[in-house]
Specification:
Carbamate kinase, 34% helix, globular
Length: 243
């Protein structure tokens, strides 16, 4: 591992499940651990943006529901703002400057400090000022996943890489939980991942990254400290290259 970050600016994708637990939708112990890790790498000059999902709060309408996809996705996008605000509040209480930029506008219904409408130039300005920027509200449109929102925001802020933190330590030939013979890839191209039908990210996100030369690093959030290991260049997880 190097003595300095190998990136200047990154987009970290967190699923909603990553900040929850079996008993709590939002687990403060997890948020405190994340805050400690993010503070550590931010102090080294790294600019950090985050996209967070809402799987701990909402998993969609489900196949048996009569709710249409548009409404289900809107609920999910609102859930991402809840998670973003929870993470931002924890960061701020720990003395880490941060802001939530939401694709969904709330005013004048809600007036909350540290939450703003998403504007690309403002996001970049906040990053340059040393704040951690948390994107909520997905893309602001239904039918798009957290993966796609992450790829889009990474490109908009000119990130050096998209880092996807998961519960699995990389990309495998099949689900390692179900298949003991599954093999982990150290490196892989987005095209290869698409052709093999690997489900680590959706096709739209892969295509955005492939067409715009955005590398993706898929790694496990555990053990604690893995975020720093990735941004300092340690070879953990799987690196997906545009070509």
């Amino acid at each position: 591992m190097k003595d300095y970050p190998v990136y200047n600016r990154v987009l970290l994708e967190l699923s909603g499940e990553m900040i929850g637990s079996d008993r709590k939708a939002i687990d403060m112990q997890v948020l405190n651990s994340l805050t400690s890790q993010l503070s550590d790498i931010k102090d080294c000059g790294l600019q950090i943006a985050i996209v967070i999902g809402a799987g701990n709060i909402w998993r969609g309408a489900g196949k048996q529901s009569t709710m249409n996809r548009n409404n289900a996705d809107m609920i999910g996008m609102l859930g991402t703002v809840v998670n973003a605000m929870a993470l931002q509040s924890t960061l701020e209480n720990s003395g880490v400057p941060s802001v939530v930029l939401s694709a969904i506008r709330f005013e004048p219904v809600v007036e909350v400090e540290y939450i703003e409408p998403f504007v690309t130039k403002n996001a970049i300005r906040h990053l340059q000022e040393g704040k951690i920027v948390i994107f909520g509200g997905g893309t602001g449109n239904p039918y798009f996943t957290t993966d796609t929102a992450s790829a889009l925001r990474a490109l908009q802020i000119n990130a050096d890489a998209l880092l996807k933190a998961t519960k699995v330590d990389g990309v495998y030939t099949s689900d390692p939980v179900l298949d003991s013979n599954a093999k982990r890839f150290d490196t892989l191209t987005c095209e290869e991942a698409l052709k093999m039908g690997l489900k680590v990210m959706d096709a739209a996100a892969f295509s955005l990254c492939k067409d715009n030369n955005m590398p993706i690093v898929v790694f496990s959030l555990n053990p604690e400290g893995n975020i720093k290991r990735v941004v300092y260049g340690e070879k953990i997880g799987t690196v997906l290259t545009p070509s």
